[in-house]
Amino acid sequence: MSIAEILDAPMARAPLVPPRPPLAPDDLSALGRLSLIRRNAIASWGQRAYEDDIVRGRFFGRSSFILNTPDAIRHVLVDNYENYTRTPAGIRVLRPILGEGLLLAEGKAWKNQRRTLAPAFAPRAIPLLIPHMLAATDDAIGALRHECGKPVDLREAMQRLALDIAGRTMFSFELEKHGAALRGFVNDYGERLAQPRFLDLLLPLGWPSPSDISRALFRRRWTRFMRGLIAERRAMMGETGAGGAPRDLFDLMVAARDPETNEAFSDEQLGDQVSTMILAGHETTATALFWSLYLLALDPATQDELATEAKGALASGALDVTRLTFTRAVLDETMRLYPPAFLIVRAAAGPDTVAGADIASRDVVLISPWLLHRHEKLWDQPNAFRPSRFLPGNPPPDRFAYLPFGVGPRVCIGAQFALTEATLALAKLVAAFRIELLDRAPVTPVGVVTTQPDRSPMFRIVPRG
């Protein structure tokens, strides 16, 4: 169904089935599939990947396995997770921008970082950060009011909002004056260096590829920029607030201590953690908010239901996230259809048996939330936008069939933070504006680092009563 047909169809058209990339032929050659992966990884899978429990293939001389059963995923990501590590290509691509932070650390280093950071991201820390989230959202709504009735790029607006939330929750100040530089770093890296090249895949990790030289130069500029942000935060506000009370994530991370060794993060480690949290946090939240607004623009009835809930929750003067059950369901369903992290790739450190398949050392195991969330055996109407499936009273999805933040010991440490900020922001935005699409051409998801739109459609926003 085209976008024009979706927008012009009567209300009985529900449920909405948004556009998706075409399926790749199942017999596509290895070179053809590699070419597709470089342009759009989620367009490289054929129908079998959405139907079979396990899809076997070959990848640069090694066997590869796409796993689509909850039991197999539990085995790899929970029961035997220490046997599965990031691939050398993944490390090459992410290390220059994330350093040795939590996302890339392995073994003892990861365990030390995880337990040190855990208190900063515990549910009890979220109330400290909610005022920062709401203030950034209110400022974004104020800026958008000047765009009412005009074509507006909500993708860019959500990137700015998510970056502002990241800056305020991390440093207690706006990143407006640094926003252009930060987005420039992210865009430059995504366009030039984030995709693995042929030699990145072929060479051992200890052998630098030509792209690694460019990544090393980027790393120098990036770490210098992050050091400047941290120095500015310390100069403006010191380490903690009055009486030593924390004010933001930076205070919580500076105060964090390993519960076993009582060691704090060094300045270099702190810089890598800040990089990881700002980049991973703002990019995934911006993506989730954009796709949510896109789907709601295609589905006005669902948008109005969300607006009604949000206005009711706002009536008391304070926005309580626990009252936003439908808003949260819309967000959950959006992340099912457009998971921010669309692919988890692991290399086997040693032999194993998964779902009856023999895994050899260095074989590649792929767990794709994109495939898993749309798998024919796991979901009713898997390609349809149906937020009701996540409402209370309906059976919850299998814990290992829905992975917007991963699962197991390495589940995203900021998941609760991200869900809170996205739910609050979406509720306030839709309570303030009716969101309409001006551009009727399909918007196709592209899997690069996150699940991005292939272009930025233009919207119109209209103030609600």
UniProtKB/TrEMBL annotation:
One GO MF term: oxidoreductase activity, acting on paired donors, with incorporation or reduction of molecular oxygen
Kindly state which keywords UniProt assigns to this record, in alphabetical order.
Answer: Heme, Iron, Metal-binding, Monooxygenase, Oxidoreductase
Cofactor(s) recorded in Swiss-Prot or TrEMBL: heme
Q: Which Pfam families match?
A: p450
Family matches, as InterPro entries: Cyt_P450, Cyt_P450_CS, Cyt_P450_E_grp-IV, Cyt_P450_sf, Cytochrome_P450_Monoox
Question: What Gene3D superfamilies does the entry give?
Answer: Cytochrome P450
Q: Cite the binding residues for heme.
A: 412
What family does the Swiss-Prot or TrEMBL record give for this protein? Answer: Belongs to the cytochrome P450 family.
Query: What name does the UniProt record give this protein?
Result: Cytochrome P450
